C-alpha cells in the first residue's frame, strides 16, 4: 500500500500570512467595515473563504459572507496583477523535507483552503508542483475539517488512511485528519498553538521541518 504525506499549504509549506491579512483588510474596507485584528485573521487561515469570513463576522447574514468571499478573491487578484504581493517563502527546511520524502518513496499531496489557481501559482513559483501527485482545494470540497479533501487524496494516491499522514499547522487540519482516519502531524511554525493542535487530535508535533521525515517514517 502506498504511503502518502499530505501537506496543508498556508502556514505549513509557505508563509503567506501577510498577503492573506492585506486581502482580508481590503475586503472589509470595501464593505465599509472595520477590519479584524490580524491575529484573528491568522486564526482562520486554512478554512475555505465563506466559513472563514463567517468566523470573523458571525453576526452578518450568509449573503454578506458570500459577497465578501468574492471581494476577497478580487482583492487578491488585484494584488497579484499589480505585482503588489509580498513574498510567500517556503518555510525553512521544507524543500529538503519534500525531496527526502520523495526519495524515500512517499507520495505527496496538498489539501488546502486555497483555490486551484492560487495553489498552482504558489507551487509553480517555488518549482515544486511536480512533487505532488494529488492536489485538493476549496474549489472542489467542503471546508476543513470535513474529510473530503483527504479522502479523495487517498483514493487518487492508491493509499489507505493508515498509511497516510496529514501535516498542518491548524486545529482544522488535525480534526480533518482524525475524521479521515489518518495520522495527524501538527507543525509549530504556523498559526495555531501546540495546545490547540493536540486538543484537535494531533498524534505528534514538529517545531522544524527537519523533524517531519523522522515522524513520518515512524508511522
TrEMBL record:
MF annotations from Gene Ontology: phosphoglycolate phosphatase activity
Entry's EC annotation: 3.1.3.18
BP GO terms, sorted: DNA repair
Enzyme class: hydrolase
Gene3D superfamilies found in the cross-reference section: HAD superfamily/HAD-like, Putative phosphatase, domain 2
Keyword Transmembrane helix: no
Keywords: Hydrolase
Pfam families membership: HAD_2
GO terms under cellular component: cytosol
SUPFAM superfamilies for this protein: HAD-like
This protein's record includes keyword ATP-binding: no
Protein name, as recorded: Phosphoglycolate phosphatase
Lineage per the UniProt record: Bacteria, Pseudomonadati, Pseudomonadota, Alphaproteobacteria, Sphingomonadales
Amino acid at each position: 500500500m502506498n504511503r502518502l504525506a499530505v501537506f496543508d499549504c498556508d502556514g505549513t509549506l509557505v508563509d503567506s500570512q501577510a498577503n492573506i491579512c492585506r486581502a482580508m483588510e481590503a475586503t472589509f474596507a470595501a464593505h465599509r467595515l472595520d477590519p479584524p485584528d490580524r491575529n484573528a485573521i491568522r486564526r482562520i487561515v486554512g478554512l475555505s473563504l465563506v466559513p472563514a469570513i463567517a468566523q470573523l463576522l458571525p453576526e452578518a447574514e450568509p449573503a454578506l459572507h458570500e459577497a465578501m468571499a468574492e471581494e476577497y478573491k478580487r482583492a487578491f487578484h488585484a494584488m497579484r496583477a499589480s505585482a503588489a504581493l509580498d513574498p510567500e517563502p517556503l518555510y525553512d527546511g521544507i524543500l529538503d523535507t519534500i525531496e527526502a520524502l520523495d526519495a524515500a518513496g512517499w507520495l505527496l499531496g496538498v489539501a488546502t483552503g486555497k483555490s486551484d489557481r492560487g495553489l498552482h501559482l504558489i507551487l509553480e513559483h517555488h518549482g515544486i508542483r511536480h512533487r505532488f501527485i494529488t492536489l485538493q482545494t476549496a474549489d472542489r470540497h467542503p471546508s476543513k475539517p470535513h474529510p473530503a479533501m483527504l479522502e479523495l487524496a487517498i483514493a487518487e494516491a492508491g493509499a489507505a488512511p493508515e498509511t497516510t499522514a496529514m501535516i498542518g499547522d491548524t486545529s482544522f487540519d488535525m480534526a480533518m485528519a482524525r475524521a479521515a482516519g489518518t495520522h495527524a502531524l501538527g507543525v509549530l511554525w504556523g498559526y495555531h498553538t501546540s495546545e490547540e493542535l493536540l486538543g484537535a487530535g494531533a498524534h505528534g508535533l514538529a517545531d522544524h521541518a527537519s523533524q517531519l521525515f523522522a515522524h513520518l517514517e515512524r508511522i
